[in-house]
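Re-running DUF2619 domain-containing protein to confirm reproducibility after the cluster update. Everything else is unchanged from the original entry.
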Amino acid sequence: MSWDKLLLAIIMIRVFSGTLEITAAYLMYRFNDLYKAFVINSLLAFVGPGVLLLTTFIGLYGLAGRISLLKAVLLVAGILLIIISLRIK
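Result of re-run:
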């Protein structure tokens, strides 16, 4: 089986992100403090959207020429709308 380099990059980014999430959960448990858990969770809020954007753009780069420009634009617009909706108070 031959692994595509872009697919491997997406997989590794997701593994890193998952490891970070599990580590954060462990730290919240270990500190046993609501304030510290809130701070850790807030830091994760910066990582999540970045991982989403990075993996999506890697995927789009790899699929360039195989999907229509309209589909690519709609996908990016949808992701941006998700991120904007998370930022609205």
